[in-house]
Structure formats: C-alpha cells, structure tokens
Amino acid sequence: MDPFVSALEVAALIRDGSASPLEVVDLYLARVDRLNPQLNAITWRRDEAVRAEARAATERLRSVDWVRQPFFGLPIPIKDLSPVQGWPLTSGSRGSLDYIAEETSTTVQRLADAGFLLMGRSATPEIGTISVTESLAFGATRNPWDLSRSPGGSSGGAGAALAAGLAPAAHGSDGGGSIRVPAACCGLVGLKVSRGRLPMGPTYTDAMHGGAVEGVLTRTVADTAAILDCLSGVDAGAWYNAPLPTRPFQAEVGAPVGRLRIGVATALPNGLPTAADCVAGAAATAKLCAELGHEVFEASPTAWSDAAWMDAFLKVWNTGIAYRPMIDVTKLEPLNAYNRERAQQVDSLAYVGAVRELQRFTRRMIAAWGRDFDLLLTPTTGIVAPPIGAFFEGAEEAPVLPLARAGHMAGFTSAFNVTGQPAISLPLHWTAAGLPIGVQVVGSPWGEAELFRFAAQLEAARPWRHRRPSVG
Hints:
Elements: H1 7-15, H2 21-39, E1 42-45, H3 47-60, E2 75-79, H4 106-113, E3 117-122, E4 134-135, E5 139-140, H5 156-163, E6 170-174, H6 180-186, E7 189-192, E8 213-218, H7 221-231, E9 261-264, H8 276-291, E10 295-298, H9 307-317, H10 334-344, H11 348-366, E11 375-379, H12 401-405, H13 407-410, H14 415-419, E12 423-430, E13 436-442, H15 448-461
Parallel strand pairs: 2-3, 9-10, 9-11
Antiparallel strand pairs: 1-3, 4-5, 6-8, 7-8, 7-12, 11-13, 12-13
Helix pairs in contact: 2-3, 5-6, 9-11
C-alpha cells in the first residue's frame, strides 16, 4: 500500500479486504521506526498496544457484528496538548514529563469512535505557544521537505508525521494558526473550524472563549470534510454552539460552487513584510480563481490592522498557561515563564476589557463577509518555513523574541481564532527550491460548507497529491 494515499482510500482498502488494520498499522509503524529518528515528529509511542488493537480490529472484520466505522483500523497520532486517559500529557514541557492524563478529549474520543486507532503522541512546542515545534523537553522537530527547516507549529509533529507518510491523518489543535501553519509548511490541508463546531466535553475549560479548537491535518479536502463529519456536533453544556450543517460536509466536496467574490489580501496586518514566495502563492491562486470564473479583487478588512485587538488578544491568549496541567512551573522555558509573568500582571478589569475589545473587533471584522466579499484569500504564513533554531536566537537574553518572530508565521491566521470563522490552508504553491507554500481561505461565520466546495474546486484545478517530500 502506498503510505501517501488519503485516509478515505486507506479506509476503503480495509473495507474491501485489500488490507487489514494490522497490515496498515504495521506499515506506518515501520515508517516511524525508519524516519522518525530524522524528523522527531512522534515523541511517545504505544506500538504494542496499537498493534493489539489492530489485531482485534482485524478479527472483527471476520465477524457479522462489525460496526462499519468510517475510518475503521486507521492509525492516527494525537498532539501532545490534548488529554487521553492514561497517557502522558507533557504539553512539550520539562515541567510535565511525569503527568498522566485522567480524561480523554471529546475530539480524541470521537476520532476513536470513528474507528481510528490512537498510535501515540506527536510533538508540540512547550504549551503550544510558538509557531515552530522546538522544545527543551524533546528538541526540534524537522520538516520532511527540508530537514534544516521547521514544520511550523504548534501542531508541527502532526504536520511532519503526515507529510512524511508516518500516518494517513494527524490530530492537531489551533489557537492562533497551529493547524494551518504546519499545513502550509508541510504541504497539507489544515482546517480551523468555526467556534462551537466541535463539542468540547464536560471537563473542557476554555481559556480563549472558543478561539482555540481541535481538528486534523490531512492530505485532501475530502479527508478533512469526512473527518469533520465524525467530529462535529452539539455540546448541550457549552456556552456556544455552531448551527448544525444542512447536510454532511463530505457532500460539499465536488458540489457546485457558483461565482464567488474573492477578496485577496497579501500584506500582513501586523505591519511585518510578507515574503515574496508567500505573496506569489496567493497571487497565483487569485489568478486561478479568476480563471475559474470568480470575481477577484484586492481587499482587506479595515479592522484587521488595528493594534488594539492584537494587544487584547495577547492578554487573553497568555492566560492559556493556567489551563495546562503543570507539575513544576519552575521548569518552564524562558518564553512561557515570561508569558506567565505578564499574565499575572493583568488585573480582572483589564482582562474583561480585553475580552470586550475582541468582541468589538469580531463584529467589525465579520461585517466584511457578504458585504465586501464572499471569501477572503491570503497567504497562510508571512514567511517560508524557517530554519531550525531561527526563532530562538538571542532568546536567552530576550525571552519574548520567539513570540515576536511568530508574528511572521501567525500574522495571517490568529485574527480568525478571535472571530471564530472557519479558515483552511491549502498547499497550492511551491518555491523554486521545492518547499510548499500554503494559501489560506477564510469563510463567513459557520461557513464550512461553502469553504469545502471552494477548496475542493481549487484542489481539482491545481492538484498537489503527486508531490512527495525528500524524506519519506
């Protein structure tokens, strides 16, 4: 079996008897054995347990009572920020190396309910606070397209593992771009879902008011849509829920798109320069959209470059550290120790003021969708995947430097965690050196259906599945 086939194709091979769950698991674990020493994408493994589960799944195929779960028998790595009962949950930190999770994330449980076999942990930077995947606890994760470069972050282990063919799909999470950025750096599809689209479960505590979400990285738009059908739903105990879709998201893939008004923005809202390759990727995609019959024009939401929301976002975002199970805060890396200290300096009135500013910003931003354009197209990142270590140069003396440099990576993505809009990164461009460049498409509130229709149209017009990284 080709390890780079889509998750839906692997599931079909298992259903028609061309491959068994055990054969599939053994294939990917062998690739982890061979390639992970170069990549450092998988930080904790449960090979014997997942093989036992795959054997049991293979036996179930022979029984008449087999429940035909859509992704029955497929292995998937789980990001080391989401709890799985009985598993280590280090959050990429030296302060939590011995912490064992007491519960399972609802998203992870729904992956298991869909038939996925949980194969281990994928790497994340400490507490997921940076757009590259490097930590003092586990070292640097490397990009399979170029081992000297980062796969992005914070779901960088997921991106590197999937891009190198260590799994057919990978779990991730996104609180400022952490699914979309690795998707862009690794040549994958990465969707940040709408606020309230995924049920978070009774034990979930939300530091970002619905701005941080879980999800997956995949090879195809159809995979992402099909997996979202398994993950989404209503959470009766949550403060907010997205409206239910009128039909399965998978049905939107290949459905008629119609003529859309596509706004294109290539300037980073934080004022940093956008790399030429990233501008070129968005420009080439804009040209493709025009060729497909869409109305395409330059546009940028007026509220986007307002510095007030960025300051408010950091006040709220810094509090996320309080929600991470941490055994020893004295072992935090300098950046997160700095973030924690800053968070402790914000009083309750300032915090509430920041939340209010983000709510006002959201209203100003989303007003543009439907009024000025239907979809917004941007580069996913402002720079090409950076060299390993580049974000941390000088961080011993100035701990905030890695976060400041992350503005190049997350400048196009983080606003939509605040607004709660769905946004997807697609691998639609490549540098002359063969590095992937992601293009982000942002939909209207709860607009995943339209986003899937449009993304599938772009994928059909400019396919990417034939591309393979140098490692793998």
